[in-house]
Amino acid sequence: MAPMSKEKRDVSACILNNKYVYAIGGYDGQVYLNDICKYTITSDSWETMVLSKTASNAKLTPRDGALSFQIDPSCILIAGGIGNDGFLKDCYIFDTVKNGLKSINNNLPYEDWFVRPSTIIADNCLYAVGLVNDYIYKYDIEDGEWTDIHDF
Q1: Could you tell me which residues are beta bridge partners of residue 148?
Q2: Residues in the chain, pLDDT under 50
Q3: pLDDT digit string, tens, across residues 98-112
Q4: Which pairs with CB-CB distance under 8 Å and at least 24 residues apart come from 102-110?
Q5: Tens digits of per-residue pLDDT, 141-150?
Q6: How far from chain centre, in Å, is Cα 114?
Q7: Which CATH superfamily is domain 12-120 in?
Q8: Which residues, in sequence order, are bridge partners of residue 51?
Q9: Is-contact 91 78, C-beta < 8 A?
Q10: Exposed, middle or buried: residue 131 (CB in 10 Å: 0-12, 13-18, 19+)?
């Protein structure tokens, strides 16, 4: 695999359609990052995405350890992580066709960090285990609503 242009850790990685890997944010040893990079598997190459101003209503808060997961053929949900002000609960949808980033109104119920593999989709819902409090979060893809399931 070709190296990224910038060394970083605790990147949130998401496989899209078994063709691309999106690397979101991370930490370079000095600062939290807010870039979105795309790795194309067939060409073994990376590119840093430039967000479309017309398709975006937000700028990604710098973070590492975010949750990122494909929720439809062209969109990635990005949630939580840790940044300069501590743990985060804000959420975004990244449209990979339009290169647009949109902030969504429904944040995680609690601030959390997702630095271990912890996400699955079942019955049109995404389930993720956070690291901070070990809650299981449920995101209804159709309704765009988060709930926490911590009494399991």
Answers
A1: 137
A2: none
A3: 999 999 988 999 999
A4: 102/56, 102/57, 102/58, 103/57, 103/58, 104/144, 106/144, 106/145, 106/146, 107/79, 107/146, 108/79, 108/80, 108/137, 108/146, 109/135, 109/137, 109/146, 109/147, 109/148, 110/135, 110/148
A5: 999 999 988 7
A6: 9
A7: Kelch-type beta propeller (2.120.10.80)
A8: none
A9: yes
A10: middle
Q: Which of 34, 42, 45, 41 has the alpha carbon at shortest distance from 5?
A: 45
Q: Tell me which residue of 8, 22, 42, 1 sits closest to 97, measured CA to CA.
A: 22
> What residue ranges do the domains of the chain occupy?
12-120
**What's the pLDDT score for residue 115?**
82
CB atoms inside a 10 Å sphere around CB 3: 7
Find where tokens 């647009």 sit: 100
Distance between CA 80 and CA 131 in Å, rounded? Answer: 11
* 145 vs 152: CA distance, rounded Å: 20
pLDDT score recorded for residue 118: 79
- Model pTM? 0.93
Residues with Cβ < 8 Å from 143, sequence gap 6 or more?
none
